[in-house]
Specification:
By secondary structure, the chain is an alpha+beta fold. It contains 14 helices and 5 strands.
Amino acid sequence: MRSLLRRVGVDTRYLLAGFPVSVVFFCLVVTGFAAGVGTAVVWIGVPILATTLLAARGLADTERRMLPEVLGRPLARPRYRPAPEGAGRFRRIANPLTNGQSWLDLLYGIVSFPIAIVTFVFAVTWWAGTILGLTYPLYGWVLAAIPDNHGLPELLGLGDAVWMEVAFNTGIGVLFALTLPAVLRGSALVRAGLGRAMLVSVAELHERIDDLAEGRAAAVSAEANALRRLERDIHDGPQQRLVSLAMDLSRAQRQLRRDPKAVEEMLGQAIASTRETLDELRALSRGIAPPILTDRGLAPALAALAGRCTIPVELDVQVAGRFAAAIENTVYFVVAESLANAAKHSHATVCTVTLVRTGGVLMLTIGDDGVGGAHVAKGHGLSGLADRLKAVDGELTVDSPVGGPTVIVAEVPCG
């Protein structure tokens, strides 16, 4: 009930307060536009049009400030391109004329005026019907006592009794009250929808383009970091072992005739080194594209990760089916990196990994009871996760106060 009353209040304020703003908006832009166009031939109209567009921008900002509360979510603000550096005085004055959003602001002031009138009338009518109808028992007996005052029930043939007129008008008030939230909400959404389309949609498109560009840059950065880490791991691990193996085999070849027993020992060491190298290469390959993930999907792959972790892991995967390869690889990488980071630094006794699907989003939650202090700053174990997730339009949240516990939440859109 409290939420409903708050929504009614928000919609009412938007419809009633927006009407005088629309009147001022309409009068200003129509007058300024007509004057500017009419005098543009003698160049006086250019500063008039520019001033009109600046005023329209200010009034449009007033509307934009009201929209988030009505629509229930934050909205982007348009970017108005400034005049070029070193531009002359006339170029700076005429700069508003070169911004497309400025013309949309002006057009909104004209188009929204009739809609503001209609929605204002609906709001006033329904509020008046509700208040006058529900309070009719307080003043209806006074109206009934006026000579020759024929009420609506009498005109409809329901009789001229006072109780009938009170009951009839009170019933109308109840009907208005029951439909008031829906009428106000519908009127507010019609007007707010037009405002969002004309005042915000271009800015939202620009934000989406920036997000895609940022995601692409994040993907490139994450891939570069992964390649550098893979190169370092190969150089520090398998490559050194293979160099040592080649040296051992060369030494064994030279001593084959002189000391066969020593050669046998060298070959045993070489075989052991070969197995260790293969194990390291398998571990590295799991960080790139583990076969179990490619063949069987997320649930078995995450189970294999949990089984290899040096900390006990409680795994709860509540998803079925397959997802896009980029999505599965990202989720796998986040879990692998988080568990590796926990095993190295957290001193935890248990980790939990939960994967659920909520609508079109995979919610991955990883927690441990360790010492905390984890964050995504550069140079730390989780630094690449945010970039990985951003590449697939995902988000990462890390809550890890000093002393623990640590909770990592990753949201991955999955279509």
